[in-house]
Amino acid sequence: MYTCSKERMQDKISTMSKYGDAGHGGITRYSLSEAAIQAREEFIKRMKSCGAEIKTDDVANVYATIKGSDPSLPGIVMASHVDSVKNGGNYDGILGVISAMEVIETITKEKIPHKHNITAMIWTNEEGSLYPPAMMCSGIVCYDYLPEEIRKNFRYEDMMRSVSVLDGSSTFQEALEKSGYKGEKSNRLNPKDYKAMFELHIEQGPILEAEGKDIGVVTCVLGMVNYRIKITGQADHAGTTPMKYRKDALFAAAKVLIGLHEKLDRLDPDLVYTTGEIVCHPNVHTVIPDYVEFSLDARHEDPKVIRQVVEIIENIPSEVEKCSVSAQTAWTRDTVYYDKKLVDYVQESVDELGYSNRKINSGAGHDAQFASYMLPTTMIFVPSKDGHSHCEEEFTPVEQCTKGASVLLNTVLKCDKED
Ligand SMILES: [Zn+2]
What we know:
Layout (H helix, E strand, L loop, with lengths): L5 H11 L17 H15 L4 E4 L5 E5 L8 E7 L12 H16 L8 E6 L12 H6 L6 H4 L4 H5 L11 H8 L14 E9 L4 H4 L4 E7 L1 E10 L16 H16 L7 E3 L3 E4 L9 E10 L2 H12 L4 E2 L2 E11 L2 E2 L2 H14 L3 E6 L4 H5 L5 E6 L15 H20 L2
Parallel strand pairs: 3-4, 3-5, 5-15, 6-14
Antiparallel strand pairs: 1-2, 2-4, 6-13, 6-15, 7-10, 7-12, 8-10, 9-10, 11-12
Helix pairs in contact: 1-3, 1-13, 3-13, 11-13
């Protein structure tokens, strides 16, 4: 068994955390921003020093490839992202890129023989925090392989027109042209030139840490439904309208929300559900609200449980507190299972290395999820301290980061040996 270097991992984590340093422990590193370009330059510098060949595709995804003894075989790719959310941490995405770099460095330094080309890759704009949507460039690259209801959100032309949430006018296409990283469409990840993709990522939840496990062997990305619940009442004066005459949409929405939680709570204990967004009109303290809309996101591996959720939502009474209530599906996604053989390679590697582990699913979306529609793919999770992610408190001890990289290395080597 081969292992990666803790010192080199720490060096990479510390170096990358400088790019976009927000000054209080975390980073803001929007895709294709100056900070993200610096992280890319660091990646390229280090990969070139390992003898890797660098390519970019037409949406600025970067591929650093070391040749195998039989370059005619399809390659193995390890990929994640260097962009972050606003005031994000030093681990989401970038740890997957750092681990891929460390695997390439270890293979090169220790002259580990391998037949297939091995690639470390950066996906552009995973977070979509400056130019929505999230997972934009894996959506573009995997477009032909995605189910229709997903791919309709990732049309190339629409993505190019995505507007900056900061200035409301500059587009993703402009950022792409300016970045200097726009390359050839023919360099895109594809199922002919590549045989497998791996993504190491932080868990972004509390399970591994709570159970004292070093590695999560990821099996799937949870299926989900996303609804908009809409409540219409009547706007009136807050001082002159007696309570019994009111049609208060916000009060009705509160009752609907609590009713939903009480019912959903009785379903499977692994079900997670969230109302994270609420719109209240006119949102003025002297006016009784006439319109409220809120989101409901529910996730579970088993489609039977998701169907129970849908049934509960679709049976919301059409009138609550004299207000009319309706529910609309915003979008749905079936559970995406990762490639069974690759999941087994991860499990074998973890077991052989003797690291504590458990099978785990991913409640969050990742580029690997889109890649898995196109070619055999799987993921490896390492713990997130206190379950925190998408915030500056994000942390994973370097020992666990290194264990993750070592699992990635041995998994790639197992995949290399199979044909
Ligand atoms: Zn991520």
